[in-house]
Amino acid sequence: MVDLVTSDLTVKAGDAVLVQAANLRLVPGELVALLGPNGAGKTSLLRAALGLEKRAGGTATLDGMDTAHLSPMQRARLIAYLPQQRPLAWPNTVRDVIALGRYAYGAAPGRLSAADATAVDVAIAQYDLADFAERETDTLSGGELARVHCARAFASETPLLVADEPVAALDPRHQFRVMDMVRQFVAKGGGALVVLHDIALAARYASRMVWMQNGRIIADGPSAETLTEQRLAEVYGVRARITGTSVEIEGAL
Amino acid sequence: MTARGYLIPGLIAATLLAIFAACLLGSTPLPAGRVLAALFGGADTSDRLVIWQIRLPRALAAFVTGAALGISGAALQGLLRNPLAEPGVLGVSASASLFATVSIYYGLVALSPWVLPLAAIIGALAATALIALAAIRTRSVVTLILIGVGLSSFTGAAMSLLMNLAPNPFTLSDMINWMLGSVANRSFVEIGFAAPFLIAGTAILLLSRRGLSALTLGEEAASGVGLNLRRQRILTVLGAGLATGGAVALAGAIGFVGIIAPHIVRPFVKHDPARSLIPSALLAGLILVLADIGVRILPTTNELKLGVVAALIGAPAFVWIAMRRRTLNG
What we know:
The structure holds 2 protein chains of 2 kinds. By secondary structure, chain A is of the alpha/beta class.
């Protein structure tokens, strides 16, 4: 089973410690929400875990291999990564953008093997993008674009996915549609680690929650256990009421 | 076949026609039959001399110069994800021109006819190496562009200094000729000297072009889909540097063609940087062949410089592209 494991992972920028001895494991079949206020070190943790950022200590392995020594191609076949910033430089068609998800298999837009073309077609059909598959990306709304990026990640057919705030700045309907896509990916046997700021959304979708504060992981466990009114007060400084999986935030403390 | 499918064959056909036209036209007009005969070994000695020693090398020099600048521009635009990038932006052309100018100023060109082209190539490679080093150290494209802007400004200032200090008007006029860019009086010997660099640069760019498509997603996501970012940067900058150095060695500094050709080509290749390289090279080559025909047949007392014509057409296009980009991206 492919897993992403960090052990005492530490990230520094100069003297500032961004991530302090983080231990995290992601396996297929679970949807993990990574929660914490701005600046808690979530993005640094993800990037260092993937080997995209230099670590100051600890280890990060993907399928047992050190991510710092994996080639970008090897890594991209094991784990898909949706970064926070997703600027598109040129107005490519939706189909061509999704085709870039096959880059690690040697494909390029317009030069797809049969397997690559099938993966792209499947992603388009499965995630309901057929209506605008041939449209240029600069004609899409932010919500449609977010779904295209997700489909691009899923077209890689990796066992794992890391997504950094995939629903930021989306309207409620598109937030649900994007999270439905992630859930669909997990239902098919994938494992997803998703940074979220919307706690109610996280409570609805995540099977496990990892809480970060000041560079440390302060809690990691099933949503039902780790999502408490006291934790929200500690981590986010908000007063909240929790009933089952529904979260109502009443105000700042 | 779609319009897209006809793009490359169409450009090749148009280029061949343009080069043939360049052989027809000139101070002694030759009819098509005599040109064809001369090209394929027939005709009399003077016709063969005009075609093989003067017109054909000149047209080919214009084509390979344009092609090298076009493919370099398209590749750099893909790398920097900016439609305004070209060899000039990274300071590669300016640096090549500076080294060429230095070799003229110090009279080194008198030593051997090879000194001038060699100096241009060394200048391009020096700029390329600096950019490549910066590319290893920084993640930021903006930083890379700013380094190029600084490099261009510095070499521009150094060039002005040399012109201020030029010992005699002949040196000054040589230097100006070089800086303005021209393919007049080029022979196969000069093309042959630039060829290894042009071929190596073009080959590197073509072999590494797939990564340019991935960069459409931005650097972070491109790494995520499997691109080795550092390697891609080095290969593209090296390939563009070699090709541009070869082009400057052959024709001096000719600007803007590396911006215009990719801009026209892009909609035909679905805006994919990788697929824009070959058509951009062909179109930029074609543009320079046509512009050079224009330079030769315009009835002016002093022949216009090809670089001047390119800039007169290219600079307004550059401004237009920049302004349109602003309205799109705020």
